[in-house]
Amino acid sequence: MAQAAAVAKPPPPPAKPKGRRHGSSTPRRLPYLLIAPAVLLMLGFIAYPVISVFYYSLQHYNPTKPWRDGFAGFDNFLHAFTEDPQFWDTLGFSAKWVFVEVGLQLLFGLALALIVNQTFVGRALGRALVFSPWAVSGVLTSVIWVLLYNSQTGITRYLADLGIGSYGTSWLSDTSTVFSAAIVADLWRGVPFFAILILADLQSVSKDLYEAAEVDGAGRVRQFLHITLPHLKDAIVLSTLLRMVWEFNNVDLLYTLTGGGPAGETTTLPLYVATTSVDAHDFGYASALTTVAFVILLFCSVLYLRLSKFGGDNK
Predict the structure, then answer these.
(1) What is the 3-state secondary structure (H, E, C) of 200-242?
(2) Measured between alpha carbons, how far is 28 from 214 in angstroms, rounded to an integer?
(3) Please, which residues bridge with residue 70 across strands?
(4) Residue-level pLDDT at 14
């Protein structure tokens, strides 16, 4: 019996290896090594250009006038704020452009999302048609609307045939109509962006909430104000912030559509930066203007997120 008990006794467990955590055979540095290529690419394509802009903003740098190149200090910034009236004109137009465009895009995008969220025949095709302009590039959008605004073959020609307006009218060359014409062209491309994001959030709202509201006697307006709108708060704040930044930096559409004209009526600050650097070759001053735009966008973004309490309780 003693011999049988001795044979049946299980062997002792193997000793744990020293210097390594139990159950972990992966080195601690392996995750960092795996993400290192992506981090290096981000530093190369994002951090380096940003640092370069900050550096050149403190320099006089114009390849066509190398004898003037050198350290400028804050001269470029002082020139922008005190001696360059076009800087203030373009900054004012940029603010006007962002306020009108983003406000109208949000309004129409919200209405469009509410419409395509309903159940109707051909809803899938309707959604595809509604969202298709967002897939079109800014330059191609500009070409489409340049053709539509053409005085010989565009909208104004057909309106003149109907007795509205006169032949040869060009909305893009008239200072009284160019802003509205550019607004409509960019609305066509920007409204689907809001509609897509808002529709995605609308589909996550529980139908039980609306059913309970109907039982309590709440109409459609009260349901929208107390159920739909609070639920869409974060989606609206995020989409509005993104469009504010994108519209402020809008260059492709305005450059192709109007070139900043007529008489500089549609020149935004980024478009002014583009012409200063590409046409005038004054890269130092253009970098200073870019730095100012960066600070303005950063300040407005932080302030907007604070005031809207993004990510907070919607109650």
Answers:
(1) HHHCCCCHHHHHHHHHCCCCHHHHHHHHHHHHCHHHHHHHHHH
(2) 56
(3) 60
(4) 59
Structural element, H or E, at residue 28: none
The predicted model scores a pTM of 0.81
What is the C-alpha separation between 269 and 80, in angstroms, rounded? 12
Tokens (6 digits) for 301: 């973004």
Q: Is 75 exposed, middle or buried (0-12, 13-18, 19+ CB in 10 A)?
A: middle
Q: Is the peptide bond before 37 cis (omega within 30 degrees of 0)?
A: no
Q: Pick from 58, 80, 81, 61: which is nearest to 69 by CA?
A: 61
Show Cβ contacts of residue 86 under 8 Å, excluding neighbours closer than 6 positions: 264, 267, 272
* pLDDT reported for residue 7: 52
pLDDT score at 123 = 80
Residue 71 gets which letter from DSSP? E
Low-confidence spans in the chain with pLDDT less than 70: 1-26, 311-315
| pLDDT reported for residue 2 | 47
Locus of tokens 């190369």 = 44
Gyration radius from the chain CA atoms: 29
If you search the block for the tokens 């008489």, which residue do you land on? 263
* Residue 181 and residue 172 in contact, taking contact as beta carbons nearer than 8 Å: yes
